[in-house]
């Protein structure tokens, strides 16, 4: 996470000085003086206690955003504090069962609205550490990421529909179409895997592979236990 950006002596340990400040990316003005080095360990322990405390309900998304804010506020490392904070937000959401978070690129929104990201910290700190500004900003970033992901899924579904129609028009049956569309995002098949996955005879699986190879849709990429391995050729009908 800090490869090429941090001296080896600082990797994997808390900072040992108070020379780190947070500056406005445009003006260079110091906007935050992190927690003094002698208070870092206690602050991190308190943050861990907060995250691990399940005695009361706080929505995991809100709790994850607070984790992000507080760790960046403490600024325990010489460098990479923002990256670690964002990574821990994702970790906490995945830990809490929000598996779809791994597909949401909030960093894209943050990069496009970096000034607002920094302002949400500044407004919060100047208003008695009111995290509302930061929470609202991150919720907006999250919703933007959800919208982008939904648009991506819709595009992929439509692309797959068009491909299926095209393949069907060229004489492929439903099983052969499923073999090809299943390979379009990567992976390989063998005659045996088609036989097993689709519950057909070995001869039928061989016939499917031959037809797909003859059509230029499958290409041989290797061998596996005396069985030829095929992947999608990249050709679209």
Defining traits:
mainly alpha, Fic-like fold, Arc Repressor Mutant, subunit A, 2 domains, two-stranded antiparallel ribbon, elongated
Q: How does this model look, in words?
A:
A hairpin with a 4-residue loop joins strand 3 (218-223) and strand 4 (228-232). By secondary structure, this protein is mainly alpha-helical. Helix 1 (40-52) packs antiparallel against helix 2 (60-74), helix 2 packs antiparallel against helix 3 and helix 5 packs antiparallel against helix 6 (132-169). It has 2 domains: 8-150, Fic-like fold (Orthogonal Bundle), CATH 1.10.3290.10; 170-232, Winged helix-like DNA-binding domain superfamily/Winged helix DNA-binding domain (Arc Repressor Mutant, subunit A). It starts with 21 loop residues before the first strand and ends in a 5-residue tail after the last strand. The strands form 2 sheets. The protein has a two-stranded antiparallel sheet with strand order 1-2. A two-stranded antiparallel sheet has the order 3-4. It has helices at residues 40-52, 60-74, 81-95, 106-112, 114-126, 132-169, 174-183, 191-198, 202-214; strands at residues 22-23, 30-32, 218-223, 228-232.
Q: Quick one: biggest sheet?
A: 2 strands, antiparallel
Radius of gyration over C-alpha positions, nearest whole angstrom: 26 Å
What helical percentage do the residues reach?
55-70%
Instruction: Give the total of domains.
Output: 2
**CATH topology tier name of the largest domain:** Fic-like fold
User: What sort of overall outline do the alpha carbons produce when their principal axes are compared?
Assistant: elongated
CATH architecture of the largest domain: Orthogonal Bundle
| CATH homologous superfamily grouping of the largest domain | Fido-like domain
Q: Spatial order of the strands in the main sheet? A: 1-2
**H/E element string?**
EEHHHHHHHHHEE
């Amino acid at each position: 996470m800090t490869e090429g950006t941090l001296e080896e002596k600082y990797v994997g340990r808390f900072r040992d000085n108070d020379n780190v400040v947070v500056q406005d990316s445009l003006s260079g003005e110091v906007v935050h003086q992190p927690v003094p080095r002698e208070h870092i360990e206690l602050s991190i322990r308190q943050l861990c206690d907060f995250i691990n405390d399940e005695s009361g309900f706080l929505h995991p998304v809100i709790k994850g955003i607070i984790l992000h804010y507080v760790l960046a506020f403490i600024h325990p490392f010489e460098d990479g504090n923002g990256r670690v904070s964002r990574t821990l937000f994702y970790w906490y959401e995945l830990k809490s069962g929000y598996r779809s978070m791994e597909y949401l690129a909030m960093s894209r929104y943050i990069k496009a609205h970096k000034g607002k990201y920094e302002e949400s910290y500044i407004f919060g700190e100047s208003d008695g550490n009111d995290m509302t500004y930061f929470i609202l900003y991150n919720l907006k970033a999250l919703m933007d990421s959800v919208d982008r992901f939904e648009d991506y899924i819709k595009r992929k579904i439509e692309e797959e529909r068009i491909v299926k129609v095209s393949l069907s028009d060229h004489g492929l049956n439903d099983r052969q179409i499923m073999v090809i569309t299943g390979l379009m995002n990567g992976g390989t098949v063998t005659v045996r895997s088609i036989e097993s996955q689709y519950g057909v005879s070995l001869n039928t699986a061989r016939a499917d592979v031959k037809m797909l190879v003859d059509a230029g849709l499958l290409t041989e990429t290797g061998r596996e236990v005396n069985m030829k391995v095929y992947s999608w050729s990249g050709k679209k009908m």
